[in-house]
Design the sequence.
């Protein structure tokens, strides 16, 4: 069992805590603060127990100088101050004398947010390549390292794995909850066990499907990835999303596990993702100039029939282009059925979180993961680097 934030005496200690504050920001306005809220419990625990919280987080990707301004973490420090009820100090530098002096002047119960760790990627990708000189500098700022950034646990970066190698370490409450919920639903022996896969590319989820197909009773496939499966069966999918490199994989899965795999039988199609002109058709009636953007009513009924009596469900990815109300009905219908029938359902991160925030109520689900890639890799059966570096009790 991994060491946790609760295993340390934090009184008088400077705690480097890696959080996932990678929130959507446009023109300095945060449109969804879910990840900030998810980090509050561990930060509060540190300052309530006499520690000083020194926060590391990334925001977006930094590939060129123009990315710096739009991925500045300062607006996050403002929102974090509001949610914590404590003034969060902010360092515009990721390292250097000014930052070191700020850290040295911190008192018990104070909080400091350091500028976007990926600012260091402008210099030979030092953050993303887990540069140990950079990790050593960050580690020198604190006494203890806590990894509470579940969304980046699948990355080997200087701010999680690097610092974790150099300081006494543990996981925070968010990572504890994520791992506990995933382990619980994966290791439970209740059936029927149904997996629902949606979203875009099949290739992103090949290893997840490989790992879960032998464990589940049904694999329901919707969203953009369904059209690659349909193409592998010989259907004309028009201009629908196609993952060409995964056609052979889809065909092999259908050959071996066709009795488990449930595909759409009708779809909502249009000439454009932005068009309000759409129609419902059977999957064998998609025109060359049309793309599938949601599952149709017959598919909704079929999917729900295969969810009846389900004891546990893992769902990753929406059933359609949920951002457009015209193509959100399939995703909403599945969420409504799961919630109304009290089915134990763990929902993967990424677009799934956004779709639930728009179409349902996350509190009605067994667990809604904050991590997209991390959850996928966990479901593949991998040891996540950001968790693997943490010492056992």
Sequence:
């Amino acid at each position: 069992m991994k060491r946790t934030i609760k295993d340390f005496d934090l009184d008088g200690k400077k705690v480097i805590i890696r959080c996932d504050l990678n929130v959507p920001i446009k023109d300095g306005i945060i449109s969804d603060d879910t990840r900030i809220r998810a980090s509050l419990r561990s930060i509060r625990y540190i300052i309530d127990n006499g520690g000083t919280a020194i926060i590391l987080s990334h925001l977006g990707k930094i590939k060129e100088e123009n990315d710096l301004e739009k991925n500045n973490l300062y607006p996050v420090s403002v929102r974090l101050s509001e949610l914590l009820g404590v003034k969060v100090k902010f360092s515009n530098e990721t390292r250097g004398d000014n930052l070191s002096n700020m850290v040295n002047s911190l008192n018990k119960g104070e909080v400091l947010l350091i500028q976007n760790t990926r600012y260091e990627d402008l210099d030979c990708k030092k953050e993303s390549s887990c540069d140990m000189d950079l990790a050593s500098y960050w580690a020198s700022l604190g006494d203890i390292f806590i990894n509470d950034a579940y969304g980046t646990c699948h990355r080997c970066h200087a701010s999680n794995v690097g610092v974790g190698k150099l300081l006494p370490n543990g996981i925070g409450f968010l990572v504890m909850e994520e791992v506990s919920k995933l382990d619980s639903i994966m290791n439970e022996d209740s059936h029927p066990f149904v997996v629902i896969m949606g979203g875009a590319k099949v290739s992103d989820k090949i290893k997840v499907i490989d790992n879960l197909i032998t464990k589940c009773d049904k694999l329901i496939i919707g969203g953009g990835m369904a059209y690659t499966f349909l193409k592998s069966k010989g259907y004309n999918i028009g201009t629908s999303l196609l993952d060409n490199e995964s056609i052979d994989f889809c065909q092999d899965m259908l050959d071996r596990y066709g009795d488990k795999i449930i595909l759409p039988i009708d779809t909502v199609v249009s000439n454009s993702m932005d068009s309000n002109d759409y129609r419902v058709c059977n999957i064998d009636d998609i025109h060359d100039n049309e793309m599938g953007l949601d599952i149709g009513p017959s598919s909704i009924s079929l999917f729900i029939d295969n969810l009846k009596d389900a004891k546990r469900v893992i769902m990753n990815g929406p059933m359609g282009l949920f951002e457009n109300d015209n193509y959100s009905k399939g995703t909403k219908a599945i969420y409504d059925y799961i919630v109304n029938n009290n089915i134990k359902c763990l929902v993967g991160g990424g677009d799934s979180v956004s779709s639930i925030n728009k179409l349902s109520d996350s509190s009605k689900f067994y667990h809604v993961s904050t991590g997209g890639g991390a959850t996928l890799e966990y479901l593949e059966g991998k040891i996540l680097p950001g968790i693997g570096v943490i010492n056992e009790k």
In short: The chain has 15 helices and 17 strands.
